[in-house]
Write a structure and sequence with these properties.
The chain has 9 helices and no strands. By secondary structure, it is mostly helical. The protein has one domain. Helix 1 crosses helix 7, helix 3 packs across helix 5 and helix 3 runs antiparallel to helix 7. It is elongated and about 65 Å long.
Amino acid sequence: MIDWIGLAISATLAHVATNLDNLVILVGVILTIERLRAITGYLAAQCLVLSAAYVVAEGLEIGFASYVGFLGVIPMAVGGLALVRRQKSASLADVPTTEPAQRQMVAISLLFLSVSFDTFAVFTPLLADSRQAFTIPILAGAALSALMIAVCGAMLARLAPERARRMGRLEWFAPYVMIAVGFYIVLNTTTDAL
């Protein structure tokens, strides 16, 4: 039992350490869109990343590490598309259009997925190295961490200036953040994969 608790705590700490960038992005996303959508997108991405780590650890051979940098294209494309839409809506009318909720959720999840390779890279060997009996505490620790990060992101967004949230002026900045994150992923992934 002590082994399970120790491993769950270690997995929680490893997940927190690899998701500090996601926490910052989550706060920014919460300030621009509905809180529940942002948190759901983050948690969906974490479920996918941890599931992929589990599948790969169970023996599937996927040559993913050398191609992970191309995931940076996703947030760059989402940000670029948002800028194009903004330009079109500004030329057609001064009333900004809102994205349908489903597309917004997919874009948010893809954004969080694109910056979660470090979580995948940590949890795949951790799950592969551990005996089958330790899979549950590792995944439970990671799930606890994901929930803690979601709660912290919501609390930090609440501490943000009320005016910024009410006026929605940060929304114009989101496409630029996505494009910057994409460039970071493309340029920095080779060092993460080593």
